[in-house]
Amino acid sequence: VASMSMVQALNSAMDVMLGRDPNVVVFGEDVGFFGGVFRVTEGLQQRYGEQRVFDAPIAEGGQVGIAIGMGAYGLRPVIECQFADYIYPAFDQIVSTAARLRYRSAGEFSAPLTIRTPYGGGIFGGQTHSQSPEALFTHVCGIKTVVPSTPYDAKGLLISSIEDDDPVVFLEPKRLYSGPFDGHHDRPLRAWSDHPAGIVPIEHYRIPLGQAAIAREGSALTILTYGTMVHVSLAAAEETGVDAEIVDLRTLLPLDIDAIVRSVKKTGRCLIVHEATRTSGYGAELTALVQERCFYHLEAPIARVAGWDTPYPHAFEWDYFPGPDRVADGIRRAMA
Amino acid sequence: MRVKPEVALTLHIPEARFRPGDTPDFGYLKLPKAGAALRPPVNAAASETRELSYGLVRVIDEEGNAVGPWNPSLDAEHLLKALRDMMLTRAFDERMFRMQRQGKTSFYAKSTGEEAVAVGAALALEPSDMCFPTYRQQGILIARDWPILDMMCQIYSNQLDRMKGRQLPVLYSAREAAFFSLAGNLSLQYPQAVGWAMASAYKHDRRIAAAWIGEGASAEGEFHHGMVFAAVYHAPVILNLVNNQWAISASQGVAGGEEATFASRAIGYGIPGIRVDGNDLLAVYAVTRWAADRARSNHGPTLIELFTYRVGGHSTADDPGRYRPADEAQHWPLGDPIARLKAHLVKLGVWSEERHAALAQELDELVQKTNAEAQSHGVLAEGPHHDPSSMFEDIFVEMPWHLREQQAEYLRLRGASKPEKR
Fold this sequence. Notes:
The structure holds two protein chains of two kinds. Chain A is of the alpha/beta class. Chain A has helices spanning 6-20, 44-48, 60-73, 91-98, 101-104, 134-138, 151-163, 228-240, 257-267, 282-294, 317-320, 324-335; strands spanning 2-3, 24-28, 53-55, 76-80, 114-119, 144-146, 168-173, 199-200, 213-216, 221-225, 244-248, 251-253, 270-277, 303-307. Chain B is an alpha/beta fold. In chain B, helix 2 runs antiparallel to helix 11. The relative contact order of chain B is 0.17. The chains are: A alpha/beta, B alpha/beta. At the A-B interface, helix 3, helix 4 and helix 5 of A face helix 6 and helix 7 of B.
């Protein structure tokens, strides 16, 4: 094992997979010689060569398009889309081919590709470097959507994603790349080296897709969340003193419905927290599922804390970001 | 000197030359003679293909002779196979079009007049070279001897349809024939073919890829993506652009064909561009073979514009009489691909009117007989189909709980409402 940041853990996952499987190739903007703008592919081209880790033209649609062709040939391409905000040009390829290929060809062809992309705010990236588009992917049948919240999970989930025979959109909470950010932007940064989930095996291991984790056990209410908001929710639970059970979903699709139902039936209360905009966000689906399955166990309406339904405003980042105070307010509403 | 400010700007909207009621006259095309185009070596620089990209490679002349440096000198056996493949494609198209009109299926798209585009390419490629076609290259499957029964069962979405009733008719998939799954989104296959070709090169394989796109869909960004990635990585791929003059009701001018040829776009990407008479099977074969040899010897991609004419409607869903002269196809100056190859074979002394008529009848009977067999396995309107509950399968390798639940819900509702009918 070693102490790793999320960046290093993701790098280690690709390192392991490039080493194990000659069909794995990694490409994207700046990922080759330079090692990626967030350094996630640092050293991989030097270790595995230009044939396997290379720069791609700035054309996300083209990148996903060639990855589909590579997948049809038998490779396992891993794409880095530099920011999730830039993934939209690839939407036609993702929705109309990657997600549909196995279905429409009745299993003759498939697209076993992984699209890694940093998402979310908190780095003063403005509206074009801060978005959380996960619900766009969970709405498309045929794509798995994964969001880690720790270095340990990030590595195990990325390995599972690369090994998976279905296309995976792997959303990396960029505010967690270097440390477990809890939303208190005015306090000193913490590093993953001080966090138990920053201890990461060097070798190959998997975390199965579709399995949630309990980030904090509790009995007063259930918080359903993922990515950066796991750490914000942990802070809010500590600060309110409410004994919340925090379910880190890790995979949004396929969803670990059993873990959700188990927790909500135990606590009788539910708060859903995500950074993405609220309307038609993934929280709406979670709300519907909890309502359908746990209605008679609920002691209060399901509450939601989400990004406002606005673009991410640059100068007002911390007014937009659902920080611990807003989550605390959500906890109080769910406890009413 | 400044432009005088009193000159007001004007907006140009391209319009088809001929609409219903007009008398078509393609005299403006200024077609080069067969045999006139030069044939550069397969490692030529893109810039050396400028004349080819604005010209037109033609091999079969007005008298049925094969002339010029692009004459592939194919033996009679291959030529007769190509003729048969084109004729079978046409007979298949005619029959399936009628079946749609009779209500046996929902949709069909013919390739009438464009048979040489698919058959000529298939003849020039190796059987294992991967094709990423559009919906109008059914001739590839036929030229690769794929069973037409299988194609018909797909069109009828019946119980033998390997696509399990999920795909619109003609959106085939045939991995064993190196024929990629088709989609209605008509440009996505361009970068996909490039990626497949890159993977083949990465693996030091010997197979190349080929893609097709219509001139209409070439306006999509995916055309540009395919060209850029193919050029950047020297992908062993042939990028075909079928210019059949019409994108449903819009002329090729709306896709940008007025100011320059589509083939000429290639040169700016550093890719050779060749414009070929798409109704001349020998020319299609020769140019495809040039591009295949180039790709296979690590000299990278080629863009081929296949200049042809869509004789039928876009599909069964449109009436071409509403947007172009009903007799426009008869005025098309490059003739009919089957008639032209037939004339060449007669000239060679290996074919005759009698044999041609006999083959046409034989193929029509084959299509009718196979059609009856396909219909015995079901048609769209009446079934039998695959079990509809199979619609929940193949979305993922393993069916997740939410799809299992929905499948169970579907079965519960079906069980409650009616007995197993399908």
